[in-house]
Design goal:
Helices cover 45% and strands 13% of the residues. It is built from 17 helices and 9 strands. It has helices spanning 22-25, 34-45, 55-62, 77-83, 126-129, 155-161, 173-176, 180-191, 197-206, 215-226, 231-240, 249-257, 259-278, 284-297, 302-305, 312-326, 334-347, and strands spanning 2-7, 13-20, 50-53, 70-73, 87-90, 96-101, 104-110, 140-143, 148-151. Helix 8 (180-191) packs across helix 11 (231-240) and helix 14 (284-297) packs across helix 17 (334-347). The termini are far apart.
C-alpha cells in the first residue's frame, strides 16, 4: 500500500490518499475497455493527468462488468476536444466531452472545484474533485497505466464492508442534489451494499426535496431502474424510504390503496428483472409493458370491451391517454409507450394497427 501526499499552506507534506497496487486490488486490465485506456493514454501523451473514475471502478472491485467507463482529467473541455476529433462538448453550466468510438460513448470530465459547494461548476484539482462525489464507493480513481487505485475517502474498505457512506455531509448532500437519494437506493440494490440507518433516516426526512426535480431528471433515473435488472429491490427500498412516490406517484398511491395491486405490481417487477437478464438490449416499450400491464388490466371489463371491435381505435386512444397520465412524471418516447399499450391490448384481444407515416417526398431542385 502506498500513500499519496499533498502540501498544506506552509508547504508541509499532508497525507491525502491511499494508493492500492495491482496485487492489492486484483483488477485485471482485460476487464477494462481498450478504447477507455486509449483515451487516457492520449490525454497523458498531451501532458494531462487522467483516470477512470466512479461507478466503473466500483464495479471492477466487486467483480461486475462496468456498463460505462467515465474518465476524469485536468484538461479543459476545449483541450479535450482538440485532442479527440471524434468528440463533442455537451452541457451548459458544467461542460463535459463525449468521445465516440462507434456506438460507444466515453464521458470525459474536468476535475471540479468545491469552491461553490458539491455541485459547483468551476474547474479544480483531483483533491477537490473527490470531495464533491456523492458516496465513497463512487469516489475512487483508477490509473490503468500504473494499475493503481487512488482512494481519498476509504472507499475500498467501505466496499469490502458492504456499506454505502456519504462523502458529503448529511446536512448538505441531499439539499445540494436531491437525486442522490435515488442513487443511494439504487446502489444499495445493485451492489449488495447496505444503507446505514442514519442515511435511511435522512432520506425519509428529505424525501420532499424531490418535488421540484425536473421530469427529465426523474425520467433518467427511472430508466436506469427499469434497465438495472434490480428494479424489484430498488422499488421495494424506495417505497420503504418514501421516495418512490416522486418517481411514480400514481402507482404508489394505488399500491397504498390496494394490496392486491401492490402484489401484482411488484411481481411484474420481478418478471421485468428476469426479462432484462435475458434480453438486456430490448427496446424500452418491452420494459414499459411490465410497469403498465396491471394498471391497464384494472381499467375496465375487457371481456365486454372486445365485443365491439369497431371501437378498437377509440379504446386504444383512451387507454394510451390513461397510461400516459399514469406514468407521469416519466416522459418516455411516444413510440415506446405506444408499443407497450398495443402489446397489453393485444393480450386482451384488441388488435391495433397504427397508420404508417407517409414518406416525405423530396423534389429535385429546379434548374437555374
Amino acid at each position: 500500500m502506498l500513500i499519496r501526499y499533498s502540501t498544506d499552506s506552509k508547504g508541509r507534506p499532508v497525507q491525502k490518499a491511499v494508493v492500492y497496487t495491482k496485487q492489492e486490488h486484483n483488477i485485471s486490465l482485460k476487464a477494462i475497455d481498450s478504447d477507455a485506456i486509449f483515451v487516457i493514454n492520449q490525454l497523458r501523451k498531451n501532458g494531462f493527468s487522467s483516470y477512470i473514475v466512479g461507478g466503473a471502478v466500483r464495479d471492477l472491485l466487486i467483480g461486475k462488468k462496468p456498463k460505462d467507463f467515465d474518465i476524469v482529467t485536468d484538461a479543459t473541455p476545449s483541450r479535450i476536444k482538440k485532442i479527440f476529433r471524434n468528440s463533442r462538448i455537451i452541457g451548459k453550466r458544467f461542460r463535459l466531452v463525449h468521445v465516440f468510438f462507434g456506438n460507444k460513448i466515453f464521458e470525459v470530465s474536468t476535475f471540479r472545484s468545491i469552491v461553490d459547494g458539491s455541485i459547483g461548476n468551476a474547474f479544480g484539482t483531483m483533491d477537490e474533485d473527490v470531495m464533491r462525489r456523492d458516496f465513497s464507493l463512487n469516489a475512487l480513481y483508477y490509473d490503468p497505466v500504473k494499475e493503481q487505485i487512488i482512494d481519498y475517502v476509504n472507499g475500498v474498505n467501505d466496499i469490502k464492508k458492504g456499506i454505502i457512506r456519504p462523502v458529503i455531509s448529511l446536512d448538505h448532500i441531499f439539499i445540494d442534489d436531491p437525486v442522490r437519494m435515488l442513487r443511494a437506493v439504487k446502489y444499495g440494490a445493485t451492489t449488495g451494499c447496505k444503507i446505514p440507518h442514519s442515511l435511511k433516516k435522512k432520506i425519509r426526512h428529505s424525501a420532499e426535496l424531490l418535488s421540484p426535480v425536473s421530469p427529465s431528471r426523474l425520467t433518467e433515473e427511472l430508466l436506469k431502474i427499469i434497465n438495472s435488472s434490480h428494479s424489484f429491490e430498488i422499488v421495494q427500498n424506495a417505497l420503504d424510504m418514501d421516495i418512490y412516490t416522486y418517481l411514480q406517484p400514481a402507482a404508489t398511491n394505488l399500491m397504498l390503496e390496494n394490496r392486491s395491486y401492490e402484489k401484482a405490481y411488484m411481481q411484474s417487477l420481478v418478471e421485468l428483472d428476469k426479462f432484462n437478464q435475458k434480453y438486456p438490449d430490448s427496446r424500452l416499450g418491452e420494459k414499459l409493458y411490465f410497469l403498465l400491464r396491471d394498471f391497464v388490466g384494472d381499467l375496465t371489463n375487457w371481456k365486454m370491451e372486445i365485443k365491439n371491435a369497431s371501437m378498437a381505435a377509440e379504446l386504444y386512444k383512451r387507454t394510451w391517454s390513461r397510461c400516459r397520465n399514469f406514468i407521469l412524471p416519466m416522459n418516455p418516447q411516444r413510440t415506446e409507450l405506444e408499443f407497450a399499450v398495443r402489446k397489453i391490448l393485444a393480450e386482451y384481444g384488441v388488435q391495433i394497427k397504427l397508420p404508417r407515416k407517409k414518406a416525405k417526398v423530396v423534389l429535385p431542385p429546379e434548374n437555374e
